[in-house]
Amino acid sequence: MSYKKFDQADLEVIKNIIKDDERILYAENINEEYSHDELGGAQSYPDVVVKATSAEEISEIMKYAYENNIPVTPRGAGTGLVGSSVAIEHGIMIDSSLMNHILELDEENLTITVEPGVLLMELAAYVEDHDFFYPPDPGEKSATIGGNISTNAGGMRAVKYGVTRDYVRGLEVVLPNGKIVEFGGKVVKNSSGYSLKDLMIGSEGTLGFITKATLKLLPLPKKAISLLIPFKTLKEAIDTVPLIIKSKAIPTAIEFMQREVIIDAEEYLGKKFPDSQSDAYLLLKFDGNSIEEIEADYDKVAKLCLEAGALDVLISDTEEREESIWKARGAFLEAIKGSTTDMDEVDMVVPRNKVNEMVEYLHNLHNEVDIRIKSFGHAGDGNLHSYILKDDLSQEEFEKRMAEAMEKIYEKAAQLGGKVSGEHGIGFAKKPYLRESLDPETVELMSGIKKAFDPKNILNPHKVFQS
C-alpha cells in the first residue's frame, strides 16, 4: 500500500481544523514517547500528533486523511504492550487523552457514558463514589477506557465478572472515511442485526476511532476479603485451581505468584510482602454484600486448599494487609521490568482446566531455552503472563532465544486449545504468532471486515493480522 507523505500543506489543513497550535506537535516537537508504546519493542515516529478534543475534530481529520490517503494511528495513554499505537507508516497520530470527560451517570439504566481518554482509575473511583462498580480491572490503571475497549482488556476480576466486552453497551465511532456512527446503546438486550459494536471491541484501532462509550455498571459490593495461600511447590498451587473452580464458590480473582517475582516487587516497592515462607502462592479475593456471605465462600475454599497441600491460609481482613498484598501484585510487571535490561512478554490464554499444565511448562522452559523467564497470571481464567528477560545477552542473542521461547510457548498453548492473547492484543509485535495460529479462511474473513470498514487501509495499518 502506497501512502501520501505528510507535508507542510497537510499541516496547514490540520491547523485549520484544530485552530490551536498547542494541540499540534510537528517534526522535532514530537515527544519521544509518541514513537513507541509501553514495551518499546516497535518504534516509529508519526509525522504529526494531534491532541483532539471532540469527535467532530477527529471526523474532519479522518475525512481529510481518507481523501488524501494519509495513514492515521489512534493513541490513548500509550500503555499498550504490543505496539498497537505505534505509527508504523508515520502520518497522523490522533491522541485522545484530552477527551477525558465523564459525560453521564445514568443510575436508572446502570450505565455511565465517557469519552475515550478517561483513565481506568478515574472511572473506577468515580463510580465507587456513587456506590457503583465497574468490574473490569486490568493491571495498568493509568490506561484509557478507549484503549481498554480497543484491546478488550481483562484483568484480575475476569474469573467472576468477565472482561471489558461484557460491560460495553454502546459506542460512538468515527469511521475511516470520517463519518460518525453509533453502535449499540443503553439497551440490555439487542438482537438487531450484526453486532458492529462487538466488532469494534478488541479491534485495536483498525476499524474505527472510538470517541464515546456507554458502559454497564453493577451495584458496588459492600465487602471484600482476600486469602493469601502459600504452597510448598508451584505445581501444588496450580493443581488446586481446578478444584477451586469446581467448588462453585467463585472468587473475584485467582492469581498465582512465585517467590522470585514477589522479591522483585519487594525491591521495587521498598516494602516487605506479608509472607515469605513459601516458593508459590495463590492469591484469592472474594466479594459480596455481607461478611457472612463472603465467609461461607472462602471457608469452603480455604478447607479445600489445606486438603490439597496448602501450608497455611492467611486471611487479609484489614485494609493495611489488603493494600500490601494487592499493591505488590499490581507492581509485578514494573518490578520484573526493573530487574532486567530489556524484556518481551507473552500473554497467552488456555482453557482453565489446562492452566496447571501450561504453568508447569513455562516454569521448566528456561531449561530448554537458555534464557530467564518469569511468569504470573490470572490462574482462574487461564490468562498467563510470561516475561522473557534479556539480562546480559547481546541484542542478537536475546532476539534469537526469545523467538525460540515464544514459538515453543505459543505452540504449547495451541496444543492445549489456547490462543495467542488473552487481553493485551496482537498489535504489531505479535502478528506472526497470530497468523500461524489462524487458518487461511479466518484471515480472509478478517481481511474482508477490514476492507468493509477501511477500504483504503489508512487506519492503523500493519496491525493485528495485516502484513
From TrEMBL:
UniProt cross-references to InterPro entries, sorted A to Z: FAD-bd_oxidored_4_C (IPR004113), FAD-bd_PCMH (IPR016166), FAD-bd_PCMH-like_sf (IPR036318), FAD-bd_PCMH_sub1 (IPR016167), FAD-bd_PCMH_sub2 (IPR016169), FAD-linked_Oxase-like_C (IPR016164), FAD-linked_OxidoTrans_Type4 (IPR051914), Oxid_FAD_bind_N (IPR006094)
Xref: PROSITE patterns: FAD_PCMH
GO MF term (any one): FAD binding
Domain FAD-binding PCMH-type, residue spans: 42-220
Pfam families cross-referenced by the UniProt entry: FAD-oxidase_C, FAD_binding_4
Annotated signal sequence range: none
Protein name, per record: FAD-binding protein
Keywords recorded for this protein, A-Z: FAD, Flavoprotein, Oxidoreductase
PANTHER family linked to this entry: GLYCOLATE OXIDASE SUBUNIT GLCD (PTHR42934)
Gene3D superfamilies in the record: 3.30.465.10, 3.30.70.2190, 3.30.70.2740, Uridine Diphospho-n-acetylenolpyruvylglucosamine Reductase, domain 2, Vanillyl-alcohol Oxidase, Chain A, domain 4
Essential cofactor(s): FAD
Annotated EC: 1.1.3.15
Coiled-coil zones: none
UniProt keyword annotation of Flavoprotein present: yes
The protein's enzyme class: oxidoreductase
